[in-house]
Specification:
Number of helices: 13
Oligomer: single chain
Strand content: 15-25%
Strand order of the largest sheet: 14-15-11-19-16
Shape: elongated
Distance between the termini: 126 Å
CATH architecture of the largest domain: Up-down Bundle
Radius of gyration: 37 Å
Helix content: 40-55%
CATH superfamily of the largest domain: Rhodopsin 7-helix transmembrane proteins
CATH class of the largest domain: Mainly Alpha
């Protein structure tokens, strides 16, 4: 007995062929499933792997012997009259059939139909693998006959499909048809229809796909408005995003020349709205729910990345408005005559230029797409502007420190020529220094000699540098961090000096001199206080960006919420700057003075 079993095992290792006959352990509609260490016949719900045997339900005979069945793959079992014991997985040759056994393929509806008559077995194999659930895009091709089905399929176009990339069946006209896995580029040649579930699956009592095989893509379910329903088209399968049923009941689909579809939806008041279906948003699927069973149009929820982009739109728009108001105020007030005022204008301008394109792109569509023109150029412009924001902040610190250390500048007003000269030097530094890391990043982006961990990649969804590796950290975050460290050192030194000067002023005995020094010092301290507030507003989001380069906040639900809050906080910097610089009594008094002066000047010109 042991020798026979050993010979059987050696025979199995060489594989089973179509001529070898073993009974099937369970009936044709069931498979063996291991439950609590015992193999039990259970209904075959997927039917992806099927066995054609002359004898079935061998375990019901209660006889000892060997049988084959499906348990993940085809396996040989030994039945001792009481229970089945798995001997070994076996290697078999599968026939790639498009529909389950006893079904034929309907080339019009792209689904399977159970045959009422005895099915013509057009192949000799005993083992069948059903459908193409792993294929993203499937095209139907008419063939005249089949040869070498277990190796490859060669079509008339000299296109060869390897094993596993095609299936063969007979259609409603008893003609051979092959279904082939194709690349997405086929949609440029013929029209493609986007199906929500993988091949052979549909929605049953919910949004989860189940093997059903009956429902492919039937355009007749969308009324008579779809033109040329019998034209050749490929089917693109598998939407992994959450889906919800399209809410408009009255709509029609029109086919465009490029293969896309235009949805014409009828809203209240019989007003028709037309728009082209974005394949990344819409798909068609059959759904069975309670008593309803029909084809529906489904729409995807935006993924988390898109939600993140869209959620930034309003905060960035608010920032742009308040940054513009801040720039306008400093331009019409006397603040523009000072170096500090000119620096504030430049800083706000850089921040405005950084937010505006991103805001416009986010508002461009409710579903941002990756194929935007000039996205790479815009990404490098955003890199340059983001670095310029930090260098202008650095200029504020340097100017405050230089002003404080220079007794001459504290003691007397500066001439316009001196102010202009100093501002030009500041501009040369603030706009010039960011060109160096930007130029380096542009060079390394094109020559691609850096390791993949720090190679710059453009995120086409946001037109920014991708934050998925350390490229953005190397060329953007690190230079900005160096500037922030310099700013921190300068602010600490200025704070220490302020405390020393305050103590020295307190020691002055002459009341008139003490009053003059206090007035000058208070004016300086006012600007220094603005700088400290601005530094805090900038530093907190920047620190969060540094941490996010090393830690993925999306791994934890609570941290994901924290990330969204900080993203909104970061995008509202324009509002915070407006509050810091302008929301104070001094600003309104200056506006009154400017308004009175302009009114008086316009009155004089009118009288003249």
């Amino acid at each position: 007995m042991r020798s026979l079993l050993l010979l059987l095992l050696i025979h199995i290792q060489n594989g089973l062929n179509a001529d070898e006959v073993y009974p099937k352990c369970c009936d044709s509609d069931s498979v063996l499933k291991k439950i609590n260490s015992s193999y039990i016949c259970t209904p075959d719900l997927s039917r992806r792997t099927q066995i054609i045997a002359n004898e079935t339900a061998f375990v019901d005979t209660l006889e000892e012997g060997f049988c084959v069945d499906v348990e993940k793959s085809v396996s040989l079992f030994r039945f001792d009259g009481d229970e089945a014991v798995k001997v070994q997985d076996v290697t078999v040759e599968f026939f790639p059939k498009c529909c389950p056994v006893d079904y034929f393929y309907n080339s019009t509806t792209h689904g399977c139909v159970k045959s009422t008559n005895k099915v013509d077995m057009f192949f000799r194999g005993k083992f069948v693998r059903v459908g193409l659930p792993h294929c993203g895009t499937v095209e139907d091709v008419r063939i005249s006959t089949i040869k070498n089905w277990n190796e490859s399929l060669q079509l008339t176009q000299n296109k060869i499909f390897a094993e596993g990339l095609y299936c063969v069946d007979k259609d409603q006209n008893n003609l051979f048809i092959a279904r082939t896995c194709r690349d997405d580029c086929i949609c440029k040649r013929i029209r493609c229809v986007y199906k929500c579930c993988p091949d052979g699956q549909s929605f049953i009592n919910g949004s989860k796909c189940y093997d059903s095989y009956l429902h492919g893509v039937d355009f007749s379910a969308f009324a008579v408005n779809v033109d040329n329903t019998n034209d050749t088209f490929a089917v693109v399968h598998g939407f992994t995003l959450p889906l919800y049923k399209y809410k408009f009941r009255k709509f029609q689909l029109d086919r465009n020349e490029d293969g896309t579809f235009t949805l014409i939806k009828q809203d209240q008041g019989n007003v028709n709205e037309r728009h082209i279906l974005d394949p990344s948003i819409y798909c068609i699927e059959h759904a069975v729910e309670n008593t309803s069973s029909n084809f529906y149009l489904f729409q995807t929820f935006p993924n988390q990345k898109q939600i993140k982009i869209l959620s930034r739109r309003v905060p960035m728009a608010i920032s742009c408005v308040f940054l513009a108001l801040t720039i306008v105020y400093y331009c019409i007030s006397d603040e523009k005559q000072t170096v500090f005022g000119k620096i504030v204008i430049s800083y706000c301008l850089a921040l405005f230029v950084f937010y505006l394109p991103r805001c416009l792109l986010a508002f461009q569509s409710t579903h941002p797409t990756a194929d935007r023109p000039h996205c790479t150029g815009l990404a490098f412009l955003m890199l340059y502007i983001s670095l310029s924001i930090f260098t202008w902040m650095n200029m504020m610190c340097i100017d405050i420190y230089w002003t404080f250390k220079s007794s001459k500048s504290l003691a007397s007003d500066q001439h316009k020529e001196e102010i202009l000269k100093r501002f030009m030097l500041y501009s040369l530094y603030a706009w010039g220094v960011p060109l160096v890391p930007t130029a380096l990043s542009l060079i390394f982006y094109h020559i691609k000699v850096l390791p993949s961990a720090i190679q710059l990649v453009v995120d086409n969804d946001q037109c920014l540098m991708w934050n998925g590796n350390y490229g953005r950290f190397t060329f953007s975050t690190m230079p900005s961090a160096l500037v922030e460290i310099c700013n921190s050192i300068l602010l600490i030194k200025i704070t220490i000096c302020c405390l020393q000067v305050n103590r020295e002023i307190d020691k002055i005995n002459d009341i008139r001199v003490k009053w003059e020094e206090e007035e000058k010092f208070n004016n300086f301290r006012y600007r220094f206080g603005l700088l400290w507030k601005l530094f805090v507003v900038m530093s907190i989001p920047f620190l969060f960006e540094v941490v996010s380069a090393f830690y993925d906040f999306r791994k934890n639900e609570t941290m994901a919420i924290v990330e969204k809050i900080w993203d909104s906080f970061n995008c509202l910097q324009g509002l915070f700057i407006f509050v810091i610089f302008l929301v104070k009594k001094r600003t309104f008094e200056n506006l009154k003075v400017v308004t009175k002066f302009r009114n008086s000047m316009s009155g004089r010109l009118g009288l003249w």
